[in-house]
């Protein structure tokens, strides 16, 4: 198999691994810097990460990793459908980030004054590290999905060399004596007995 046939598949694998790493990073990077005295879910906090605010970055990172195995194992239409699912997931992540779902989650939580502070804290300041990692991961997911949808049916499949189309014809043309022994055993016969 030529390297030019394998290259798009390895590009997809690399894009998906990078997307998984980016989504994992987005869940642990800071999305909001909180003013002194801010409490969130009963704790005094200085900052909130993506994992604190929204539940989706971690599971989507696992989806991207699972898609690596699926991209290697699937073929044809199934691989193209995987590409469509990945592209849709990328659009969903983009909508969630740009729509401010993480900030809405913070605003929906009740404002809490930490012990020792006389007034409620001020407004938090948004950071760009977490959202940027999520958007970059969405771009990587979209690229992998579009490449699978476009060229997925032409990419080689993991283990395809063991199930090449000509294998059955070659086996029929040159029978294997050991195969007859195994066939007899699976049929419940003693292969060492000669037909009388």
TrEMBL record:
<feature type="region of interest" description="Disordered">
    <location>
        <begin position="161"/>
        <end position="196"/>
    </location>
</feature>
<feature type="transmembrane region" description="Helical">
    <location>
        <begin position="56"/>
        <end position="74"/>
    </location>
</feature>
<keyword id="KW-1133">Transmembrane helix</keyword>
<feature type="transmembrane region" description="Helical">
    <location>
        <begin position="81"/>
        <end position="103"/>
    </location>
</feature>
<dbReference type="Pfam" id="PF09534">
    <property type="entry name" value="Trp_oprn_chp"/>
</dbReference>
<keyword id="KW-0812">Transmembrane</keyword>
<feature type="compositionally biased region" description="Basic and acidic residues">
    <location>
        <begin position="186"/>
        <end position="196"/>
    </location>
</feature>
<protein>
    <recommendedName>
        <fullName>Tryptophan-associated transmembrane protein</fullName>
    </recommendedName>
</protein>
<feature type="transmembrane region" description="Helical">
    <location>
        <begin position="128"/>
        <end position="150"/>
    </location>
</feature>
<dbReference type="InterPro" id="IPR019051">
    <property type="entry name" value="Trp_biosyn_TM_oprn/chp"/>
</dbReference>
<keyword id="KW-0472">Membrane</keyword>
